[in-house]
Specification:
The structure holds 2 protein chains of 2 kinds. Chain A has 36 helices and 10 strands. Chain A is mostly helical. Among the domains of chain A are: about 350 residues, no CATH class; about 110 residues, Helix Hairpins (Orthogonal Bundle); about 160 residues, Histidine kinase-like ATPase, C-terminal domain (Heat Shock Protein 90). Chain A has a 5-stranded mixed sheet with strand order 5-7-8-10-9. In chain A, strands 2-1-3 form a 3-stranded antiparallel sheet. Chain A has a two-stranded antiparallel sheet with strand order 4-6. In chain A, helix 6 runs parallel beside helix 17. In chain B, a hairpin with a 2-residue loop joins strand 1 and strand 2. By secondary structure, chain B is mainly α. Chain B has a two-stranded antiparallel ribbon. Classes of the chains: A mainly alpha, B mainly alpha.
Chain lengths: ~900, ~60
């Protein structure tokens, strides 16, 4: 079934499906229901990292040196672990500044420098070309290979084909059309390419499924699991190097480490990774899932690399089959036609995904950071006078995509055959790694300057070019190989593969070592030597301190000058179209709650807004040029910018302090509220007290007064009556005195003005004496009183009179609440560990649960105060508890209504005093 | 400062852990002639350690 037309039809059907997905996603986005606003889609789109290199090349690399393919995926895993620090910061900065590409990001950081943006673009294009050519090579060779079915013939052995019959050319052209169709629909590059992202996510899913399918088939269809493959491989001595992969050479570990570092940087600074991770990101929170889902994807797509590599070496023992094609050649050799087709489409999806995103990202950079700044400066083109530039911008981007793919094809024709897939890709990795120092330095180090960045970048790139690209050209026959062997002009120290005589490293390690030294060294040195301009200083601060500035970076504060509203409006209209400009300005006016009209003058806010809108379309550097062309700007000096920045940081500090103060205030006011509630409660208690006490005082007073009046008015009263009345008066007066005494006592206890006479007290004696003294009270009401006291108890430290007061209080309470004649009161004393415990139990009516909680409070009495006559002041128990607690004891009540009550208290035995007493 | 919140520090610690796990000399310790279920020890180590690291990253990232 694998005729040529089937393969071509399947490929086009696949591309058609992609296009349908993209179309659908774009429609949904227009309707406001985005399909890509999901952390899962975001994670899948990041997997555009896995290209044809991963799909075909990893197996090729593994077949050569075992685990050598792994650092390319372990490095990104480690970098992603740092994304919460690094990527979140880049995302925040990019969203605020409407960054459109990696070049825009770097240019923007270093004072919106058009020159720097241009250099970054040139380096990115040159550096990425080998990578694009790699994808074209993978597609065309897998296609050619599949076309030979059922024979397995390596494409390289077929010889050079004429230009027009080269599949790679047609692949390049088809991909260009395809990319143009879905990459350049919108003009605003800072907006999301929803359709593209949805299609990429689908491609990631498809290539994973295809690779897993072939992996599972090889492992369990062709062999009997992993163990079987490795055991069989061990029997072949020629596979020995694959089985002991890092064979102890120092160079092995060094290159392992460098490859890890290299891919850590690549995952951040490959233009397409920057595009999907930063520009297409919809929500910072998606990072949370991506941080582990993306590494998981890489793990999944790598599990079967080694089994396939070993399986391939076992199945094709002769060197006739290139290991880069094992993934496809294995199913072909076993006549698995459908699987072979799925694998081919999987490889196609891996390659197209990379090409689409990479060329979109690069075309944005070429347009915004390379061509526009130049075109806008060329007065002869009179671009400033054109009414609408949207068509021009789209044209440039589309042209750039086509040119990039054709350049990739040219590189493939000229140099593509000299290297395996992975080696070609690594050359590109090393190129984009040159962006790392100035980009990472830019967001964490305010000291980095434009000149430092330019110098570092150019130095690093020059070394890269000399040690990696030049040798690649030389091997392809463009240069005499003599240069590699003996150095330029025969100077051995300058040999590109052993610079300054450094040998023993592999080519990538060697190039990375020297280029990073040159890059970082020059960047830091030049930054320290040359002072930054005001623009650079401002941008550095806005980038590095992005988390310190609460919301808007306040770029408007750094602008001073005069501008007219209409001019800004027409400027915006030239890039956004008339409708777009109108809508943007209205929106701006609405957020600032101000009316908008064409005629109004422009303030700094508006100028800043227009510049930001333009930056979203043509990049920060070009936007700056455009805005500068219509407004009169007064240059700010470095000192002014510094002063403004200081002011800003001071304001932030003040607002921090203010926040602290207001929190303190909140706390204090909460405390005040609580205190106020307590006071209100106390006030209510006081009112209760006054009414209770006055009631209590009035009763005896009334009877005293009544009997006194009788005595006063009736001088002839019989002596017996007179004596009886006087007796009542005396008793009531005593009661009054007792009451007042209690009130005073309670208030003294509370204010802590009581004097305590502490001594060693024998509780047993105290209880016996008190019972004896109050026996009268009990016999009067015919209540039985029992005491259960041990022979001997250790003494406690307390005030004797006070303890007597407590016991008397408990006894008189008990006798009050039992029925005469049937009542029984029992006093017991026990030793409980370090405490002595006294229980006074009665068989009265008991105390309800509710009352148990309050009877120890001041002026509270058990029972219904409305109907039952209160007996006593309600202070006795309160005072008793205060006394007991003063001596470190505890007092409580346990009772069930109807079954009597038991009042208990404890007093601590003091070990030392016990010992002394004994 | 927001960029050095506890979550960021945990992630940074995991990155350092990964750098140690996948470098000399730990790699050398596993780079010996031995097999686990027929799979060379070093290969088994890579995928197990890698998976474990990802699991840790998931825990740190998803924790509130």
């Amino acid at each position: 079934m694998l005729q040529g037309w089937v393969i071509v039809a399947a490929s086009f059907a696949y591309l058609g499906l992609l296009f349908a997905i993209a179309y659908f996603a774009d429609k949904r986005a227009d309707a406001g229901r985005s399909v890509i606003a999901s952390p899962y889609i975001y994670s899948l789109s990041l997997a555009v990292y896995a290209t044809a290199w991963t799909f075909y090349g990893s197996v090729g690399r593994a077949a050569a040196d075992g685990v050598g393919f792994l650092p390319i995926y372990i490095g990104p895993t480690l970098m992603v672990a740092l994304w919460w620090v690094v990527m979140r910061k880049i995302l925040r900065i990019s969203k605020r500044n409407r960054i459109t590409s990696l070049a825009d990001f770097i240019a923007s950081r270093y004072g919106k420098s058009a020159l720097l943006g241009g250099v970054v673009t040139v380096i990115a294009v040159i550096g990425i070309l080998p990578y694009i050519s790699l994808q074209l090579k993978a597609i065309s060779s897998s296609f050619t290979l599949l076309l030979q079915y059922p024979d397995i013939v390596m494409p390289a052995t077929l010889g050079k084909v004429p230009l027009l019959q080269d599949t790679a050319l047609w692949v390049a052209l088809i991909l260009a059309v395809f990319t143009i169709l879905f990459g350049t629909r919108h003009l605003d590059a800072a907006e999301h390419h929803e359709g593209m992202v949805a299609a990429i996510a689908f491609e990631s899913l498809f290539k994973l499924v295809a690779f897993l399918a072939v992996g599972i088939w090889v492992s369990w269809g062709l062999f009997n699991g992993f163990g079987d493959i490795f055991t069989r491989a061990a029997a072949h001595p020629e596979l020995e190097p694959m089985l002991s992969p890092l064979n102890g050479m120092a160079g092995s570990y060094a290159s392992w480490t460098w490859l890890t570092v290299l891919s850590m940087l690549a995952i951040m600074f490959l233009p397409r990774q920057f595009q999907v991770a930063v520009i297409e990101n919809k929500d910072e929170a998606h990072l949370k899932k991506a941080i582990w889902l993306f590494p998981l994807y890489m793990l999944a797509i790598n599990i079967f690399v080694l089994p396939i590599a070993f399986g391939g070496r076992l199945a094709f023992p002769t060197a006739g089959v290139d290991a880069d094609t094992f993934v496809l050649a294995l199913p072909m050799a076993q006549k698995q036609e459908l699987l072979a087709l799925v694998v081919f489409i999987g490889g196609l999806s891996a390659a197209t995904g990379m090409v689409i995103v990479e060329t979109i990202a690069l075309s944005t950079m070429v347009c915004n950071d390379l061509l526009m700044p130049v075109l806008l400066r060329m007065r002869s083109l009179r671009l400033n006078e054109r009414k609408d530039l949207t068509g021009l911008l789209l044209g440039i981007r589309r042209g750039a995509i086509l040119v990039l793919l054709l350049l990739g094809f040219v590189y493939f024709r000229l140099a593509g055959e000299a290297y395996a897939l992975v080696s070609t890709g690594l050359i590109s990795f090393a190129a984009v790694a040159q962006f790392a120092p100035i980009a990472l330095g830019g967001i964490f180090w305010k000291g980095g300057t434009r000149r430092g960045a330019l110098a570092g970048l150019i130095a690093g790139f020059a070394v890269w070019f000399y040690t990696l690209l030049l040798p690649a050209f030389a091997r392809s026959g463009w240069f005499p190989l003599d240069l590699l062997e003996h150095g330029p002009f025969g100077i051995e120290l300058l040999r590109p593969l052993a610079l300054l005589g450094v040998t023993g490293l592999d080519q990538i390690t060697h190039a990375m070592f020297w280029s990073m030294w040159a890059n970082i060294g020059t960047y830091v040195l030049a930054s320290l030597l040359f002072a930054p301009s005001a623009d650079e200083h401002r941008q550095a601060s806005l980038f590095v301190d992005v988390f310190k500035h609460p919301s808007e970076p306040g770029g408007a504060r750094f602008w001073r000058g005069t501008a007219s509203g209409p001019e800004l409006h027409s400027l915006l209209a030239r890039f956004l179209g008339a409708g777009g400009a109108e809508a943007a300005l209205r929106e701006h006016a609405r957020t600032r709650a101000a009316g908008w009209s064409h005629e109004a003058g422009a303030d700094a806010e508006l100028v800043h807004f227009v510049e930001k809108q333009l930056a979203g379309v043509i990049g920060a550097a070009s936007a700056r040029i455009m805005v500068a062309s219509v407004v009169k700007e007064e240059a700010m000096t470095l000192d002014e910018v510094r002063a403004l920045l200081d002011e800003a940081s001071q304001i932030i500090m003040y607002s921090h302090r203010l926040e602290q103060k207001s929190q303190e205030l909140e706390r204090t006011s909460a405390e005040l509220r609580a205190a106020n509630e307590r006071l209100t409660e106390l006030d209510k208690l006081k009112d209760d007290f006054v009414s209770t006490v006055s009631h209590e005082l009035r009763t005896p007073l009334t009877s005293i007064r009544a009997f006194s009046e009788i005595l006063h008015d009736n001088p002839r009263l019989p002596d017996a009556d007179r004596a009886r009345f006087l007796g009542i008066i005396v008793k009531e007066t005593a009661r009054l005195t007792r009451l007042i005494h209690q009130v005073l006592d309670a208030s003294r206890l509370e204010s802590g003005r009581t004097e305590w006479n502490e001594s060693l007290v024998d509780l047993r004696t105290v209880i016996e004496d008190t019972i004896a003294a109050n026996a009268q009270l009990f016999s009067e009401r015919e209540v039985r009183l029992e005491a259960r006291l041990p022979e001997r108890v250790p003494p406690v430290t307390a005030d004797l009179d006070r303890i007597v007061q407590v016991i008397v209080n408990l006894l008189s309470n008990a006798v009050k609440f039992v029925e005469p004649r049937r009542g029984r009161v029992e006093v017991s004393l026990t030793e409980e560990g370090e405490y002595l415990r006294v229980d006074v139990r009665d068989n009265g009516q008991g105390i309800s649960e509710k009352d148990q909680h309050v009877i120890f409070d001041k002026y509270r009495q058990a029972g219904d105060t409305l109907t039952g006559k209160p007996q006593g002041s309600g202070l006795g128990l309160h005072i008793s508890r205060q006394i007991i607690e003063h001596f470190g004891g505890r007092m409580w009540v346990s009772s069930r209504p109807g079954e009597g009550a038991c009042f208990s208290f404890t007093l601590p035995i003091r070990a030392s005093s016990y010992a002394r007493a004994a | 400062m927001e960029e050095f919140d506890p979550r960021a520090q945990r992630h940074a610690a995991l990155c350092l852990l990964g750098l140690v796990l996948f470098n000399y000399p730990i790699l050398a310790a596993f780079n010996v002639e031995a097999t686990v279920f027929g799979i060379p020890l070093l290969y088994a180590y890579f995928f197990v350690a890698w998976g474990a690291l990802i699991a840790l990253m998931a825990i740190v990232a998803e924790r509130r």
